[in-house]
Design goal:
The protein is of the alpha+beta class. It has one domain. The protein contains 6 helices and 6 strands. A 6-stranded antiparallel β-sheet has the order 2-3-1-4-5-6, sandwiched between helices. The longest helix is centred in the C-terminal third of the chain and has 14 residues.
Length: 168
């Protein structure tokens, strides 16, 4: 059985876990990594349901924020928000995600939930710019279309590296 859980990425002068926007997680969040300029990665393993609000996290910190939900180590649902450029979604491991969504009674597909990889790469570049970073759309697209391998969360950390917020 692979890993299930959330990764929360944001920039703030104080710990993200103490912010109102992540009130749904409470004390269950664990600091996973810190990077220059106040970037933080927090982890909430093995949990489905309400974590908090990514939009509110971006508003509360005044900086872009990103949630990655890893599903059995196979794929990652990525949701990101920034105060100016808004919200975007992406999927790491689209084929695996399609398998998880295939049993939905409403018949929705990966394309109904997530942006196409090229569109997501463009939005990710804007997100990175708003974070004060430089990202190359082709490098981001490469990650968005890569095989997640045996551990999809590694692909999430590669994405964070390409966005320039948390080095791999």
């Amino acid at each position: 059985m692979g890993y299930w859980g959330y990764f929360v990425v944001g920039r703030a002068e104080r710990p993200l876990a103490g912010l109102d926007a992540l009130g749904g997680a409470g004390a269950d969040l664990t600091l996973r990594a810190e990077a220059p300029d106040g970037w933080q990665v927090w982890e909430l393993p093995g949990r489905e349901g309400e974590l908090g609000s990514m939009n509110e996290l971006a508003k509360e910190t005044g900086a872009p924020a990103l949630f990655g939900y890893v599903m059995n180590g196979d794929c990652v649902a990525v949701e990101a928000a920034s105060p100016e450029s808004g919200v975007w979604t992406a999927c790491l491991g689209r084929d695996a995600m399609a398998g998880y969504l295939g049993g939905r009674p409403e018949g929705l597909t990966v394309d109904d939930y997530f942006l196409e990889p090229a569109d997501a790469a463009g939005r990710a570049v804007l997100w990175a710019e708003e974070a004060g970073r430089t990202a190359v759309a082709g490098d981001v697209l490469e990650v968005l279309t890569a095989d997640p391998g045996p551990v999809a969360e590694n692909l999430l950390f590669r994405l964070l590296d390409r966005l320039g917020v948390v080095p791999e």
